Each structure stands twice: as C-alpha cells, then as structure tokens.
Amino acid sequence: MKTEVVYFTRTKHTEKMARVVADVCGVEAINITEQHRLFDVDCLFIGTGIYGGKPSAELFRYIDDLPVNQIKHAVIFSSNFTKKDQTELLINNLRAKGIEVYPRRFVTTGSFLFLKRKRPNEKDLVALRRFTIKALQELGGNS
Ligand SMILES: Cc1cc2nc3c(=O)[nH]c(=O)nc-3n(C[C@H](O)[C@H](O)[C@H](O)COP(=O)(O)O)c2cc1C
Asked: Which InterPro entries did the record assign (predicted)?
C-alpha cells in the first residue's frame, strides 16, 4: 500500500504531528507549500490546524488541485484550541473529488496564544501514533 503524508501548518504544531505520522508510515512528511507531485496513492494522511473555524484556504486550494483518480483514501489529523472536530468542509471536498475518507479522524488540542499551552504534547503524539497504526491496519497496510 502506497502511503503519503501532507500537511499545512501556521505555527508548526501540525508539522510536529505530521512527522510522527510519517515516521509510522516510513515516509517523509510533505509541507503542501513545497513542490511535489502525488500519484497512485492508496492512503493520503492530511494534517491541518484550524484558523477561524476551518482549515486554511491554502489547504482547500491544494485539495482542489489534487490529481484526479490518483488518491484512494484520505485520513485526517488535526489540532485546534477547542479540540472539537472542525474538518467537515475538508472532508466534503475530498469526497466530492471521489476520494474515500477514513471514517475516524484524529483531533487533538493545539495551543493558541495563552490558551492550552504546550499542546500538542508527548501524550497527544503517542495517541496520534496509535491512531496512525490502526488506520493503516484497517486500510490494508502492514504497520
Ligand atoms: C490565526 C489563527 C486562528 C485560529 N483560529 C482557531 C479557531 O477558529 N478555532 C480553533 O479551535 N482554533 C483556532 N486556532 C488554533 C489552531 O487551530 C491551533 O493552534 C493549531 O494547533 C494550529 O496548528 P498549526 O501550528 O499547525 O498551524 C487558530 C490559530 C491561529 C494561529
């Protein structure tokens, strides 16, 4: 199963998370602002923070521009200061592109200004590692 990990970040939390996911998958995490091309991907992990109640416009544009028929499944991981899942719009857009979205999402707390300092922390990253292993197993990987 071919797996890739892409992410958008403003304050580096998602980068930290993406490195954990990529480590489990045995690949390098790709910042969506870097030049790259995806093809024939069975499982695309997508990481993002939440800004003004939703993922960034950059990530929506990136999803719009994903190549057609090259991505089978997407798995979402995210953080925000409410810990409430705010990725619904992203999921709708992925589905509209014919990409199957893994039904469970990883959402954890991400600090913002003086709120929820030092999150995501080591414990959050351990939970993310477990989530990633389970998603890979359920989608047919061998981790
Ligand atoms: C400009 C900005 C706007 C944000 N807006 C929200 C928001 O509307 N709701 C929320 O729960 N968190 C919000 N946050 C918190 C981020 O989602 C959280 O810090 C997340 O961990 C950031 O991930 P990143 O460091 O990868 O960018 C905001 C953070 C920033 C910097």
From this structure: Flavodoxin_dom, Flavoprotein-like_sf
Residue 50 Cβ < 6 Å to ligand 1: yes
C-alpha 80/C-alpha 61 separation (Å) is 20
**What single-letter DSSP state applies at residue 67?**
P
Looking at the chain, list the stretches that DSSP marks H as alpha helix, in order from N- to C-terminal side: 13-25, 57-65, 88-96, 122-138
Per-residue pLDDT tens over the stretch 74-133: 999 999 999 999 999 999 999 999 999 999 999 999 999 988 899 999 999 999 999 999
Domain at 3-138, CATH from 3.40.50.150, 3.40.50.360, 3.40.50.300, 3.30.530.20:
3.40.50.360
In contact, 46 and 74? CB cutoff 8 Å: yes
Task: Collect all residues with Cβ–Cβ distance below 8 Å to 49 and sequence separation of at least 6.
Answer: 8, 9, 10, 11, 13, 14, 55, 56, 78, 79, 80, 110
Q: Ligand 1 center to residue 143 CA distance, Å? A: 31
Which residue matches tokens 């910042």? 31
